[in-house]
Amino acid sequence: MDGMTDLLIAQSNKSLMTWIGLGVIIVVGLVIFGIIAQFFGLWLQAFMSRANVGFTDLIGMRLRKVDARTIVLSRIQLVKAGIPEVSVNDLESHFLARGRVPNVVNALVAANRANLALDWKKACAIDLAGRDVLEAIHTSVHPKVIDCPDSSGTKKSIDAVAKDGIQVKARARVTVRTNIQQLIGGAGEETVIARVGEGIVTAIGSSESYKAVLENPDLISRRVLEKGLDAGTAFEILSIDIADVDVGENVGAKLQADQAEADKRRYQAEAEKRRAMAVAREAEMSASVEENRAKVVLAEAEVPLAIAESFRSGHLGVMDYYRLQNIQSDTGMRDSIARTDDKNDKKT
After folding, report:
1. 101 lies in the same domain as 161
2. 146-153: long-range contacts (C-beta < 8 A, 24 or more apart)?
3. Do the domain assignments include residue 222?
4. pLDDT digits 0-9 by tens, 213-253
5. 222 and 178: one domain?
6. How many domains does the chain have?
7. CA distances from residue 293 to 149, 288, 299, 302 in whole angstroms, order as listed
8. Is 93 in the same domain as 189?
């Protein structure tokens, strides 16, 4: 009986293990089926396109939280465009670096079709630097036109003054294409606009007359292009076309008028200074005259004292005194007659 019981227990345990194993197999099978069902469409699409993307790659993308559809479709696009050297790992790396994989792939395909020198690493570097690499490729194929000055700004023209003093207002259109090799670290449109504006001002300022600028506006374009303004920028300047040239104010005459007004004010100030100095000098001379008159009065006041002293000392007699009085009277009369004659002369 014990042997029979042990045999039944053993058979029961064996059946349980069988069912457990079968359950595990079913679960594993369901998991595998779910994975296959999830990635089968992408795998089949890649397989039929010979993109060489395996199930393990798809599972790894899922674990790394990478968008498998984006990677597979980008890989297929590259293979069909004849760029098979970009691997799935390269695509995943750029995706994990928060790059725009479809944008870079489209740019790489466009560059390959246009025979432009652009490899995967360069395209990824441009994308991660914040530049739109696809737009850069499009600009290389289809050159871009930039208004100088910028049409969106408040300034509508570039103003400069020729050597004859006449102001000239110009507007230019700059045709550029992207320089892929200098796209990273190269200056943008603002720098190109600023340099072209500076070149136009220099070209107009070196012209002898505003008439020369109006007759030959292409001289400005040639002089500006000779300066190599696209050095260090992300663009290559193809042409600079002067769209409009107008005559402005006569700045030279205005400056001369302002200078003349300033000179007049300066001369008036100097004349006023001299007048004030003359008035001060006149006042000084008047004070000096009054001072001398005071001295004369003081000296005349001592004459009677001297006469009295002469009387007391016996050096002056009475007849001498009367003769002195007569002389003084005659002198006073002559002075009075002379003043009367002077007044009559002035009246006549």
Report:
1. no
2. 146/173, 146/174, 146/175, 146/176, 146/189, 146/192, 146/193, 147/171, 147/172, 147/173, 147/174, 148/172, 148/173, 148/174, 148/193, 148/196, 148/197, 148/200, 149/193, 149/197, 150/193
3. yes
4. 788 888 888 888 777 777 778 788 888 888 888 887 777 77
5. yes
6. 2
7. 81, 9, 10, 14
8. no
- Per-residue pLDDT tens for 299-320? 877 777 777 777 777 776 767 6
Range of 62's domain? Answer: 17-114
User: How far from each other are the two terminal CA atoms of the chain, in whole angstroms?
Assistant: 182
Cβ atoms of 169 and 246 closer than 8 Å: yes
Sign of dihedral through CA atoms 92, 94, 99, 103? negative
- Cα dihedral angle (184, 221, 138, 193), rounded to 10 degrees? 50
Residue 159 lies in a domain: yes
Total count of residues recorded for the chain? 348
Strand partners, 239: 175
Q: Is residue 163 part of a domain?
A: yes
